[in-house]
Amino acid sequence: MTARIHNPVAIDTVEHAAATPAMPQPYAELGLAADEYERIRTILGRRPTGCELAMYAVMWSEHCSYKSSKIHLRQFAEKAPHSDALLVGMGENAGVVDLGQGWAVTFKIESHNHPSFVEPYQGAATGVGGIVRDILSMGARPAAVLDPLRFGPLNAADTGRVLPGVVAGIGGYGNCLGVPTIGGELVFDRSYAGNPLVNALCVGVLRRNAIKLAKASGPGNQVILYGAKTGRDGIGGVSVLASATFGAAGDGGGDAAKKPSVQVGDPFTEKTLIECSLELFERDLVAGIQDLGGAGLACATSELASAGTGGMRVWLDRVRLREPSMAPHEVLTSESQERMCAIVAPADVPDFLAVCEKWDVDAVVIGEVSAVTPAEADAGGRLVISWHGEVVVDVPPRTVAHDGPVYARPLARPADQDALVADAPSPARLARPAGGAELRGTLLRLAGSANLCAKSWVTAQYDRYVQGNTVLAQPADAGMIRVDESTGLGVAVSTDGNGRYTRLDPYTGAQLALVEAYRNVAATGARPLAVTNCLNFGSPEDPAVMWQFAEAVGGLADGCLALGIPVTGGNVSFYNQTANTAILPTPIVGVVGVIDDVARRTPTGFRRAGDVVLLLGATSDEFGGSEWAHVVHGHLGGRPPAVDLAAERLLAELLVAGSRERLLSAAHDLSDGGLAQALVESCLVGAIGVRLALPGDLDPFVALFAESAARALVAVPSSSEPRFTEMCRARGFPITRLGVVAGDAIDVQGQFSIPLAELRSVHEATLPARFG
Amino acid sequence: MTRIGVVTFPGSLDDRDAARAVRLAGGEPVRLWHRDTDLAGVEAIILPGGFSYGDYLRTGAIARFSPVMGSVISAAGRGVPVLGICNGFQILCESHLLPGALTRNNHLHFICRDQRLRIESSRTVWTAGYQPGAEIVIPVKNGEGRYVADRDTLARLDGDGLVVARYLHGNPNGSVADIAGITNPAGNVVGLMPHPEHAVEALTGPGTDGLGFFTSVLRRLVPA
Asked: Which one of B112, B144, B200, B209 would you mutate to disrupt binding with A, by most A Cβ within 10 Å of its Cβ?
């Protein structure tokens, strides 16, 4: 046993703070503005103690308080479409949606961008761990993970450091948890060179009557901290890393000085924490629960208290430490991973501790819910934290957790926006391929390009099989898992985002991310239900970035309203920039859908020779922000593809109805790279070719490579063609018969033919050639 | 109904999958806990995939000393069928129920893919239902699946027909002689790196080629 080192002289108690009002405090170093510090003094009627200052600093950080984004995010609630399926909306650890048959699904996406740049393996690993705990804390078994990723150029030196580390971290952690990774994205662009994006979405499954909430109610109930011991890792993670801009990049080493702010994960501990928690839930031993993530105990205690009765007493010295010399403010703000905080009725405490003992999980009662006077309730409750008998925190928790500062940051359309939009990719501006040989070459070049090539080098490092319920996984349009083995009830999930589109028009770009994810879910036969989003942007202190953000949120909120699917939660990640250069604005949208029987899911790949290949939707000359313009010309300008939300709804209806009536043998959404890329993927996934003629009314280049939205490629058995065609005509939805599934080549009549073997070698060689 | 035990160690991941496979094959899965020494009268035992005890120190090295493994080792000695899948195979090697060891994949990455195998031996209780030489496709997923053994052991495995399955069309981890699974001379203990429990339903796996491991042992255990 190590004796705890305790130096009372160094402890700044409430009493001491009241007696020393003029003592200078390092609020600026902790990321607080002068007026924010003054506000804390006003709330408390004295200067804060060191512990209180640390608590306010992390909880009022951009990452935790959403102080710059809040006024915009309100639109998600104000414009939320009515949904009978919504059980828990925004504001909780994750949203919960009703699936029917007594089942519910909870899901949320988060970012771990800055930690993953500083320390790719641990940054990405703990990103997965954090979102999995969010889902667990809703009372759900984590059932699937998706990872949207953005990196600098494929061939940039630092990408060789960051990408393999991130992928190994996601795999190293996720594979040990027994949660399958079923989808995600991998996109390269130079704007992410000094600021990669590592987002992670987790889906959890639970009975709809078993939802757990993060609130500490019922005076006398005990506060139990369980899981890993608390150490010095991750201190200041949310304020130092997530809420600040990094300096100039390119030294290839991340930012070594910030490494101590990155948490270190232990997936084995998380796995036992998951199983232990699920047993605690099943035995109904938990009255309220919150995971410990950003801002650690400072966040968990203040949020639980603020959302509950309002009062909490915590004996901080009871927290089990990895390093006995830790000071109380470090214990409060440590972001050590694999910890949960539960509110437990006193009578249940022995059983609770016994379950923890069964799973070899450390657990200790650190506090209790306390009653508050009406006056205290009005002031925001009362959270009292002591350290070896001395009170180091005495604050109204609501002022810490929920009533932080809110800013209406200035917005300004970027100075270069008009010029960017005016620089359209017209034939005069960008030379287009003409004739079969050039079109063939363009198709191959795109199919092997960084953003469109096969991603199996990455996805093969993730376990997609564990739990035995994975029905669809990458490279399918959406991942799909079975929820109920007896009925076949399941959910489909997709994440999408396009930074180039969003740069050209943030309102439309965000909607394009939404409609792509929506379309991907529908392509599998599932009915889209709800939305989560991870909004990755530059510094909110830059008016141009704030304009992008406001536009994107507006587009997303309006789009969700029109599609009838509510936003249930998400995450904002600001300060994604290197010095003064922001990343491409990158809202990532996750859509979850329900399917009553996973046996009828529509796969992405073509399956049977003789099936008829149909193109659904209208194609226009739309190349602004396209992969073709990016890969062939390094060009970004013009307008992104137009969004037609009514058409997206119709298309989704057709794809779901086609699946329900079992008319479709394959379906694939059209997005990056257009029809050509959809053909490449459907043929290679299915290992069978296609013979087709391009529509006569379109320029062949436009037909193949335009990125018009609201389109999908489907294959139907010839016996089903009349019925499906009639369904499209009855809805007035454009449908074009392209050809048939056949042979072992993509054969575009009158233009070119590419053997699948040649196509596959080009499509699959890119990542292995770079990363080995 | 024939009862087959599935052991859960802390860090086991595919225990519920193995139990499902037993059920789909027509058996009754029985959950066994790592701290228990009582095997609850099961007639066969599966050590599932995962990262038992975090696989700290060395894969399977800590699990080998768990209370349940003492009972498993003596049951195996009495001829009770034991199948170790992935981490289970690693535990069987650490327990010396099978020779050799599983080491880090030669390419140093975790790999998850559908893998073609050839069943080399139908003489084990777990593979009796397969034709010798049958080719099957089941998932492989591991970071430390490269089978290694000394030359004498390899010669004995080959000579005595103790190699149960070999990788075809590409060795996923650098295993010596493409070895994917082996058995003991009695044929009741089998270790397999790929995952037959993930190929028991067409809906959720590459096919149903893995079901034969579970139906084989059930057929053997059913009283005539």
From this structure: B112
